[in-house]
Automatic annotation (TrEMBL):
Protein name: IrrE N-terminal-like domain-containing protein
Gene3D superfamilies the UniProt entry points to: 1.10.10.2910
Pfam family name, one: Peptidase_M78
PANTHER family (UniProt xref): ANTITOXIN HIGA1, BLL0069 PROTEIN
The IrrE N-terminal-like domain, residue ranges: 43-170
InterPro entries attached to this UniProt entry: IrrE_HExxH, Rad_response_metalloprotease
Record field: transmembrane: none
Length: 174
């Protein structure tokens, strides 16, 4: 059953399973080739990214900090103890909070290992969807598919995301 779904993932290309929201030009400029340059994107948005050892139970944070922040006054701190694909997802998730939620998260956001925070579940779901959109844009998925990248693990490797994140993006069982 799962194997069938994997074989049929290109169907997601005709009717993307998640409806994407419009992204600023600065975002799409970093989505032209795989993998998406997520740290460079954060910098272009005026954010500084710090990779530091945090407790295992935390993914990362978005903080307003005049000294450690970029030109926007905000910084992302990502857990150095987590593997690279995880850190990339965390950075994308915090970028989502910065772009979509900083007006309601004026004191910053701290995300636990399951991307939960003091913000609502609906806001966290929105941040996860936007993060997936940042790291796995449909045009890049389509381009990789037409280059012959058809295995989920290869697609995930090219985009530097976890296989689980890739499956969720494609609407496949995890
Ligand atoms: Zn969050």
């Amino acid at each position: 059953m799962i194997e069938d779904a994997v074989r049929e993932w290109p169907a997601a290309l005709d009717a993307p399973v998640t409806a994407d929201v419009a992204v600023p030009d600065v975002v799409s400029r970093h989505q032209q080739s795989a993998p998406v340059k997520i740290v460079a994107l954060a910098r272009d948005l005026g954010l500084r990214v710090w990779t530091e050892p945090l407790p295992e139970s935390l993914s990362g944070k978005l903080v307003r900090d005049a000294e450690r922040g970029g030109p926007s006054g905000w910084a992302i701190v990502v857990n150095a103890r987590h593997v690279k694909v995880r850190r990339r997802f965390t950075i994308a998730h915090e970028i989502a909070h910065f772009l979509l939620h900083r007006d309601v998260a004026t004191g910053g956001v701290q995300d636990d290992a399951f991307y939960r925070s003091h913000l609502s579940g609906a806001i966290e779901t929105e941040a996860n969807r936007f993060a997936a959109q940042l790291l796995m844009p449909w045009p890049l998925i389509r381009a990789l598919n037409s280059e012959g990248v058809t295995e989920i693990r290869d697609l995930a490797a090219r985009l530097e995301v976890s296989e689980t994140a890739m499956r969720i993006r494609l609407g496949l069982p995890t």
